[in-house]
Amino acid sequence: MTTMPTRRLGGLQVSAIGLGEMPLSLAGRPDEAQAVRTIHAALDAGVTLIDTADAYCRDQSDFGHGEGLVKKALAAWPGDRDRVLVATKGGHTRPGGSWDLDGRPEYLREACEASLERLGVEAIGLYQFHRPDPKVPFTESVGALAELRAAGKIRLVGLSNVSIDQIRQARELVEVASVQNEFSPRFRRSEGELAWCAANRIAFLPWSPLGGIGRGRDLGGRRAFAEVADAHGVSPQQVALAWELAKGAVVIPIPGSSRPETILDSAAAASLRLGSDELARLDQI
Q1: pTM of the predicted model, to two decimals?
Q2: CA-CA 20 to 30 A from 233: which of 35, 109, 131, 239?
């Protein structure tokens, strides 16, 4: 197993680049053998953070696919599984393949129990509230996670798709280890949450850090990213991840991948250092 620079998440040290498992579970996903090879390639490259969710599946009939896949891949990997932090989420449902919300405390408790069983663990390393449900008071949803943590069902609590005000509200109820919001060269509207997390030493996990499934290749069409990549002899995708890492020591991108080759390329970004002039140029795009 290759070593990789690490960053702090809660009281843990995890790899500076994680693996977003979602592309391995949605419609159009690769076959299981390729999915497992992709996860193993990430682990062999030093990735020690795998991000999944119960809702990563084709539809409700396939619910929990991602968690089951991660369990199977880890069981077949010969490395030290105790070093790997598996993060999952609850709060989304998938009727007919759509993305609905259920933030009721009773649902989140049931979802957590189901995730524990699918992952085959006694406590989930990082459990994240997937997305606030406008039908349920936010503090009630977070309160359920606080109860689950107190009961020893989860070790760390995370939030996803939240505002600064919601992070503040949550911190009054429970220690927040991480925030997972969308952030990439094409989506920068969560830069305020990123900066707030950096100031408060909360890990920030950009989801879709390369722009979303199938959009990573578009970075090559952004002249500045392409030119910086050429100067370093790397891919534009590596430049994008290195740019995000430079945003703050709390940033831990979780690029998705459906092939071993792409996660290996992403993992290499943890060692790429960009100059201040290059970072300034990329910031202006």
Answers
A1: 0.96
A2: 35
